[in-house]
Amino acid sequence: MKRHTGGARILLVGRSQAVLDVVLQELRDAEVDAVGTLEGQIRQFDVQAFDLVALGGGLAGAAGDPLRAALRNARPDLPLLEISASDASHRILTAIRHPDPVPVDLAAYCARIGYSAPIVPTLETLRALQAHHIASIPFEAIDVLLDRGIDIAPAAVDAKLIGGRRGGYCFEQNDLFRRVLQAFGFEVEGLIARVRWQLPPGDPPRPLTHMALRVTIEGIPWLVDVGFGGNVPPAPLRMDVMGPQETAHGPFRLFAFGPALLLQAHLGTRWESLYELQPIPAASADYEVGNWFTSAHPSSHFRHRLIAAKTTPEARFTLLDGRLTIRRPGDAAEQIQLDTDGIERALGSTFGLPVAEDWRPLIEKAAAAGPG
Questions:
Q1: Which residue in 3, 35, 30, 9 sits closest to 20, CA to CA?
Q2: Which pLDDT score, from 0 to 100, does residue 66 have?
Q3: In a domain, 32, yes or no
C-alpha cells in the first residue's frame, strides 16, 4: 500500500550506490519524491530544491564534516538527517511525516536534575548535564520486579522519570537523555551494546540489551551513557581515543574489539569489561527487543534482584538486594547489610525514590536474600 508524504523532496547522499538504490526504491514505493547521489557527485544538485538531505552512515561524524559544512554554507536552514542503511527509509519517512514530535519538557527536566546553566550545545554543557543526571535520576528496575513491564515510549518515560521522580534503566535513562540533548541542539545517535559485565568465563555472548549514545561535537565523537548502574561512566568518553581516560571515578578505556568497541573500567587492581558497543546507530526495534528481553526474559537478573544505583561527584551508591555498597574515589568500598526497613529507607533517602506500599513485599524478599 502506498502512503502519501505531503510532497516533500528528499536528497539522499551516500558512499554506496547499491545501498542508495535499495533505500530509494523503498522511498519511491512509499510515494516519496527522492533522488540519490554519491558524495562526490553532489555538486550536480541544487540543494535549494530539497526539503531534506539525508546523509548515509559512511558520512557520520568527522567523515561527513566537510559535506555538512558545505551544505550549511549553501543553505543554513536546510534540514540534515543522519541515517544508517538498516533504518534509512523509516527515519526519512518519520522525519517528513512527523517533523515536530512532542518535545521533552526541558524546564521540568532541568528542575528535576538541578541544572540552571545556559542551554548551549557545548562539551562543558554535556559534562554538566551528564553529572547532574546520574546524581539526580537513579538507576532502578523496580517495575520489572512488580511485573509491570517497562514502557519506553517517550511520554511514559517522561511521566515516570521526570513527573513521577522515579528512576529507570538504560532504555529509559538514555532515551530521555538523548531527547534532552537533541533539544539542547546536540548531534546525538542512539547505539546498542552487548553487556559483558560479570559475564562468567566461557559463557556465550549475551544479547544486545544496553542502550548508549554517541554525541558528536566539532567532529569529535563522545560516548555518553547515563544508564549503566553502579559503573556508569561519570563523564563523556572520547570514542576516537584508544587508551585510558580519567574521570572522577577512575579511568575508563575504549578500544576496537572485533567490529565493536569494548568499554572497560579500571576497578580495584584490574580492568573490567563493561560492554561491547556496536558502532552503527541502532533502530527503534533494537531497543524494543532489548527492552523486552531485559524486562521479561526469565534469565534477566532484573527479574530476580532488587537493584538501584546513583553516582554523585563524591561517591557511587549501589544497592543489590539488601547490600548497600558505597565507593568513594581513592577509598576502599564500604558495604552495609540492610534489613527490610533499612532497604526502604535507603531507597527513599539515598536514591530519592518515592517508595510505594506495594514495594514492601519485594523489599522483604530482597532483605531475606541475605549477602550475595
A1: 35
A2: 84
A3: yes
